Amino acid sequence: MQEGIIIKSTGSWYSVRLDSGQSIACRIGGKFRKDDKRLTNPIAVGDRVRVVTEVDDEGTGVIREILPRDNYVVRQSPRKKHALHLIASNIDQAIIVMTIAQPKLKQGFIDRFLLMTEPFNIPTIVAFNKVDVYKEEDIEILAYLQDVYEEIGYSTLILSATEGHGLDDFKELLKDKTTLISGQSGVGKSTLINAIAPELDLRTGDISDYSGKGQHTTTFAEMFDLPFGGLLIDTPGIKTLSFNYLEPIDVAHNFREFFAASEECKFGGNCLHRSEPGCAVKAGLEDGRFSELRYANYLTLLDEMEEQNYWERRKV
């Protein structure tokens, strides 16, 4: 029995880098579940595992045990609405890459992504890429979003892979840490990685002229060694994020500024900040302490939680 780390997942096979330095292809031996949740993939990139190496010409192995996780990032499966999909495990931080243009910004995606990382207190950085193509109105939107997220404690980065803007800060942020990098298709994630680590030579794609949306270039989650130190977990471009495993109160507790203010709400931590009397969040919106944009995204997520049939959520 040898220990190692999952460095790539293809759905049915996993690449494991053993502590000896050797990398082998492994399959799963037995059934694994996470907190009795229904998972499409019980093992994620970043997981520490114990492996039995089979005695055959191919040198494949069998994963027999998943070691305890420090944290993990999970999402509702895009294909099976009653199942969950593990994205990554045991990370130090996460970076969500966005653009204001090419493709056009979907701001609500930022708050959806933060809803995945906030429950584990995973430090998350919002990186705005392709700043070299921004028009004047895009720059104004960028400045506004920076203010919104930095005000509540999230770090932001302004990047241009083509012009090299912000790349030194980007490298310093990644150095000697295990980082999950994610974003919607077409935001330039792979181009950014190639700009700071050309040795990796990741495949990049173009924006569709017809739809204005990005084309998927990353097929499976994969962990890479950065030449300047650190590990980077690259993920497939995400189109949508849904949360069949959360209750409305979970949303309230993981919008950090609203949760902090709930101590002053009449109903405390049970307040959903909609029409309840004595709500500190509603008062904060009226006096400008809280972002109306964040609050609008929050209400959208609450509505989605409540529209999902209760028994369907119980099947997860």
What's the number of domains? 3
Structural class: alpha/beta
Distance between the termini: 32 Å
Rg calculated over all Cα atoms: 21 Å
As a percent range, the share of helical residues equals 25-40%
Strand content: 15-25%
CATH-derived architecture of the largest domain: 3-Layer(aba) Sandwich
The largest β sheet comes out as:
6 strands, mixed
Strand element count: 14
Query: What do we call the CATH topology of the largest domain?
Result: Rossmann fold
Q: Kindly state the mean pLDDT as a whole number? A: 87
Which overall shape is indicated by the principal axes computed on the Cα atoms? Answer: globular
Pick out the low-confidence regions. Answer: 206-219
Strand order of the largest sheet: 11-10-9-12-14-13
Write the element-wise H/E pattern from the N-terminal end onward.
EEEEEEEEEHEHEHEHEEHHHHH
Number of helices: 9
Output the CATH class name of the largest domain: Alpha Beta
Can you tell me the CATH superfamily of the largest domain?
Answer: P-loop containing nucleotide triphosphate hydrolases
